[in-house]
Amino acid sequence: MKRFILIIISLLPCCAFAQKGLTIQHLSGNLYTYVTWHENDGEQYPATGMYLVTGKGAVIIDTPWDTTQIRPLNDSILLRHHQPVLMVIATHHHGDRAGGFDVYKRMGIKTYSTQLTYELCEEYKEPKAAYTFRKDTTFNIGGYKFQAFYPGKGHTKDNIVIWFGRDKVLFGGCFVKSLETEEIGYIKEASLADWPASIERVKKAFPDARYVIPGHLGGTNPAALDHTSELAKHAH
């Protein structure tokens, strides 16, 4: 049975909606998913990130959308794994992925993105990473290797995915849509015509993925890749 850590923050009396907290779930090996919530079109909507625990410390993939949950997330990692957070990587420039960069920088934690994501954060006056890397980069942290991979345009022109080869886990972020939704979601910056081909590049690069993690809502089924492709093909 999968174990959960739940941290619920107090409700703010000024808010007209219930503010939800932080949920952490073990996925595989030293990999965990976490969910925070943020107001979107007047409703609370979940965003999923991940973290990897190594002998040197933890690596977070995408900052919490609700930045008030950054410290609870860090504290939970330290309490459960006895490791500090070493670094944070964003999979594209939107607030549900990179919005907490400034908070992490104030904590002295290294922040990373692709150079294109950095440039888009600068263009849109969003928090920027302190360090950048090429679109396809392999990291080796505490003896654990993982890969940042640029599949091509999709949800945004800078979206990347993260491949954890040891556990055959693909973190898709907002590039991958959950099987729980029939909506393609926010497409103002999307490249709908390119998205299906970009999905095919991911499938070719990582054909043995056991878990595929979308950026919103739930699920781990690799069928989310084909589902995303079909949503993009039929979006208007």
Q: Determine the N-to-C terminus distance.
A: 41 Å
The percent of residues in helical segments reads 10-25%
Query: Strand fraction band?
Result: 25-35%
Q: Please tell me how large the radius of gyration is.
A: 17 Å
The number of helical elements comes to 6
Summing up helix and strand content along with how strands pair, one would put the structural category as alpha/beta
- Shape category: globular
Spatial ordering of strands, largest sheet: 1-2-3-4-5-6-7-8
Would you report the number of β strands? 13
Q: Largest sheet, if any?
A: 8 strands, mixed
Q: Provide mean pLDDT, rounded.
A: 91
- Helix-strand pattern: EEEEEHEHHEHEEEEEHEH
Poorly predicted runs are 1-19
Descriptive keywords:
236 residues, alpha/beta, eight-stranded mixed β-sheet, five-stranded mixed β-sheet, 13 strands, globular, disordered N terminus
Could you explain how this protein is built, in words?
The chain has 236 residues and is an alpha/beta fold. The protein contains 6 helices and 13 strands. 23% of the residues lie in helices and 32% in strands. Strands 1-2-3-4-5-6-7-8 form an 8-stranded mixed sheet. It has a 5-stranded mixed sheet with strand order 9-10-11-12-13, covered by helices on one side.
